[in-house]
Amino acid sequence: METSGALRRWFEERFDFAPLREFLDHKVVPVHSATPLYYLGGITLFLFFIQVSTGLLLLLYYRPTPDEAFESVKYITTRVPFGWLIRSIHSWSANLMVFTAFLHMFSTYFLRAYRKPRELTWMTGVVLLGLLLCFGFSGYLLPWNTLAFFATKVGTEVAGSMPGIGHYLLLVLRGGEEVTGATLTRFFAFHVAILPAALLVFLGLHLLLIQQLGMSMPLKVERELEQQGEKPRVLRFFPNFFLRELMAWYAGLAVLGVLAALYPWDLGTRADPFASAPAGIRPEWYFLAQFQTLKMIPGSVLGLNGELLGVFAFTAAGLFWFVVPLLDRPSRESRYSIVFPAIGVFAVAYLVTFSILGYVK
Amino acid sequence: MCARAASQVPGNPEKRAGNGGSGNGPPSPERRRLATALLGTGLISTIVAFLYPVARYLMPVMQEESMTAVTAAKVSELKLNSGRIFKFGSRPGLLVRTSGGTWKAFLAVCPHLNCTVQYRSETQQIWCACHNGTFDLNGQVISGPPPKPLEEFEVNVRGDEVIVSRSRRA
């Protein structure tokens, strides 16, 4: 006890912890029926930590060349002690992270937590989700298996059909006209260096904004409290909320452990650029809705290229989603409106329906 | 950390009364100690459960060195009083043809700090350039920091081929 006290004093004489302690003493989390939704962002962050640590471990054995990539992943899963577990955790955690990020985003959306003054928190969050999807897309190719190879071909082709910059984008992504070893090198660089650097910046901003602005309260609860003239019920962030969040992380870890151990991630067969695409090629589940939409759009709609129209619609929807806090004027003025929740319900219904269609068809 | 954090919050954690907790003041020290012990045990078990697979994963898979014999050179390739490096499995070997015409072979790895040694015809010794260690043609240390002799191989000449194998003495 005395040693820890002396150690604390030693540090305190060299670094002023008072502002941090002051901040933690005053940081609170509102308590209401939707409080559990606050855990979703934290769980996503926790899964991101898992991704970083397992990713670093995989880097010790992975070799990013077309001749060695598949073999090195096979080596990890069959020869290295616990290699199968590390890889399985990395793959499962990536999927769970995208899932919890979506849940976090929609809970934020439906609670209208993006309203003034939290527009920038929302926007950095949308960028973060985009980066997570890029992580998923780039990481999918790295084992250099058949499924990943064709999914990358299709995915980069879709990006290549964007008006204007499409062909340039395709060349930049693939490192040439075709998906080759150059693509693998690039995707590896995106996955382990460029995307992490970008993510760190936006994650830093996102967390900073959350600390500065505090947790948002649902519009309904805020109005009720105002009408009753009451102060909101709050929970101290540290240690009360933090320890509860820790328990949520523990639960997340248990789910992850069970999935990774009982359902090890499949490696598939080695990619052959000169083989025909096998039946049942489809992307990761979080791209299924877009994949299915592009499949269902006819080649030509009112004289316009169907695929182009689809890509244009996705881009427009993404932009709309990014600026939604600026468009949702009623919630900015603390008024309730049916329009934006309805748009949210439509978005969820579309994503769920088309993902299921993409999965079963 | 959990234990310390928990001890800072006696009783009801919420600022406004009436939600959760025992409702009868702070818990007894025995209950607090039990909770701390349970939390601590859980945390330590989790950390161990994580560190063990990671520690095992970090250890590279050792490849069995199956190399027993190798053709190091052709007789015609080496003049008297000269030496050359050859591959012995994944490690370098040193083949020497002495001025008297005898063949000598060693593992060319200096026992000091793993540098690859070389034959110097002017001194007729084996020399390590990294820390100036010298060995005689039996692999014994003459000078410098190497703590033990070089590992010697067995050499057999079959026709024009010089076959080097792991010495039965080693």
Write up what this structure looks like.
Chain A has one domain (32-271, 282-360): Cytochrome Bc1 Complex, Chain C (Up-down Bundle), CATH 1.20.810.10. Chain A is 70% helix and 3% strand. Chain A is built from 15 helices and four strands. Chain A has a two-stranded antiparallel ribbon. In chain A, strands 3-4 form a two-stranded antiparallel ribbon. In chain A, helix 3 packs across helix 11. The model of chain A has no long low-confidence stretch (mean pLDDT 93). Chain B is an alpha+beta fold and 170 residues long. Helices cover 21% and strands 30% of the residues of chain B. Chain B has two helices and ten strands; from the N terminus they run H-H-E-E-E-E-E-E-E-E-E-E. Chain B has a six-stranded antiparallel beta sheet, with no helix packed on it. In chain B, strands 5-6-7-8 form a four-stranded antiparallel beta sheet, with no helix packed on it. The longest helix of chain B is centred in the first third of the chain and has 30 residues, at 29-58. Chain B is elongated, with a radius of gyration of 33 Å. The model of chain B is unreliable at 1-22 (pLDDT under 50). The A-B interface holds A 28, 31, 57, 60, 79-83, 85-86, 233-236, 238-240, 242-243, 246, 250, 253 and B 2, 5-6, 8-9, 13-16, 19, 46, 53-54, 56-59, 61.
